[in-house]
Automatic annotation (TrEMBL):
Name of the molecule in the record: Sigma-70 family RNA polymerase sigma factor
Superkingdom of origin: Bacteria
Boundaries of every RNA polymerase sigma-70 region domain copy: 28-97
InterPro entries named among the record's database cross-references: RNA_pol_sigma-70-like (IPR039425), RNA_pol_sigma-70_dom (IPR014284), RNA_pol_sigma70_r2 (IPR007627), RNA_pol_sigma_r2 (IPR013325), RNA_pol_sigma_r3/r4-like (IPR013324), WH-like_DNA-bd_sf (IPR036388)
Family listed: Belongs to the sigma-70 factor family. ECF subfamily.
SUPFAM superfamilies per record: Sigma2 domain of RNA polymerase sigma factors, Sigma3 and sigma4 domains of RNA polymerase sigma factors
Pfam families recorded: Sigma70_r2
Length: 186
């Protein structure tokens, strides 16, 4: 890991990005890619995954620095690595949730669900909220989608509208569950 004797000043990086964007981004990519690749491979990812992650992180970094929305307290590569680690963790969680069940596991779950009907009572409450609320809550909490993606998929005017709608749906769900304890859903 890189250590710094003096804090990195985001304005210096901003000037470099504005004046020599391509060259500066290439340098950042060249410095960060080996670290990101090593981390992603350790976490069962591919070189393509590492490239995608780093490209997304560099775009995020670039936008934040140019729009002066980032205060760096570490080296730029440290920031990029942190963003990549966080996004890779989210990606792995998403992949794990979306893996298809084997037929044997699916049959076993169906048998168990017949015996454990109360466990699915919560899903019934979510379904009663309506299709748009159900889809929004499932996309955010179960599939781990970003609000930007939810706003686009469900045709909200903007991310703020999606956030407000998610909050309203969650509040409706909470109100409908007020009279129940956790034991009702076990």
């Amino acid at each position: 890991m890189q250590t710094l004797e003096q804090p990195v000043i985001a304005t210096d990086i901003r000037e470099d990005l504005v004046q020599h964007r391509e060259k500066t981004l290439e340098k950042l990519y060249a410095k960060a890619y080996p670290m990101v690749l090593h981390y992603v491979k350790q976490q069962h990812g591919s070189p393509d995954d590492a490239k995608d992650l780093l490209q997304d992180a560099i775009i995020l970094f670039y936008e934040k620095v140019v729009h002066q929305k980032l205060t760096l307290t570490a080296a730029p590569t440290t920031y990029l690595m942190a963003v990549c680690k966080n996004r890779w963790r989210h990606e792995l969680e998403k992949r794990n949730r979306q893996q298809e069940l084997s037929p044997e596991v699916g049959e076993q779950l169906q048998e168990e669900s017949a015996l454990e009907a109360p466990a699915f009572a919560l899903a019934a409450f979510v379904d009663k909220l309506g299709e748009k609320c159900r889809a929004t809550l499932v996309a955010f909490y179960y599939l781990g989608q970003q609000l930007e993606q939810i706003a686009q998929q469900h045709q909200y005017r903007n991310v703020r509208s999606a956030t407000v709608q998610k909050f309203k749906c969650l509040e409706r769900l909470r109100k409908s569950l007020q009279g129940f304890s956790i034991h009702h859903f076990r």
